[in-house]
Amino acid sequence: MLKLSAIFFVLLIALGVVGETIHPFYGGDRELAARVSKVSFVLLGGIAFAFAQPAIWGWFIQAVQNAIQRSGTKSRMAQTIMRPGLKSTARSAGLGLCCFFLIMTAVLAFQLWLQR
Fold it and tell me: Is 8 in contact with 44 (CB distance < 8 Å)?
C-alpha cells in the first residue's frame, strides 16, 4: 500500500506542476478547471495519506518497541508495548484508519464539487 501512496503523491506533485496548463481541456471555463483541480488535489492527497496509514502505524510501533528495548525498562506498560502481536494490531488499526480517511476524502471531494 505504501507504493500506491507514493504513486498518488507523485501524481499530486505532477498535477501541481501542470497547474494552469489544463485550462484548455475545459473549453476555457476557468471555474470548471478550478473545481476539477481542487477536487483532484483533495482526492489524490487524501488517497495517498490514507494508503500510508498502515505503514505509518507499523513504523511507529516498531520505533517505540526499539526505544523501550534499548532503554531496558521492565515496567508493566513496557511489557504491554513489547507484546509481539502489537505491531499487527497497529497495522490493523492503520487499515481501519485507511478506510476512514478514504471515506472522509470522498465526502470532502463531493462537498468541494458541490460548492460554487
Answer: yes
